[in-house]
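Q: Could you fold this chain for me?
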Amino acid sequence: MKKERKLRYKCVVLDHDDTAVMSSKELHYPAFCEIMEKMRPGSHKYTFEEFMKFCFEPGFSVYLQEKYGFTDAEFDEEFQIWKDYIKDKTPDFYPGFLELVKELQELGAYICVVSHSEKAEIVRHYAENGVKPDLVYGWELPPEQRKPFAYPMEQIMLKLGMKPQ
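A: Sure. Below is the predicted structure, expressed as structure tokens.
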């Protein structure tokens, strides 16, 4: 006899990049290599490990500005190259992740995503794998409303009629 499963939490809020999907290795690093080849040809060829290290400290944008003197116009160009690179690619989800999300949805949980990717990309990644998150908050928000600020969580609670407890 199968045991009845019950939800302990009505809402699950997930990160996306490198939590749900293997995006750094499969999207962001290859896009960065293309950006550097187009914008700073002949510059140092970064390993994945080097890329991850400077993305963490001092941060991607800070690094490009300090090391390569990227201007606002160049950051706009960099962003467009990145968007063009990722627009038709979907990174692999980690093994078992989608099955867990689908099971939670079947049990009645709300699935929300708060991440630094753009909402449209997150929604597409899930849709191509047969899943539709209830709410998604991403990079398209103003900086003060993005992760790690509280705005996405406040909106999730407001829209779903939930309280912090």
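A (continued): Helices lie at 23-39, 48-68, 72-86, 97-106, 119-127, 151-160.
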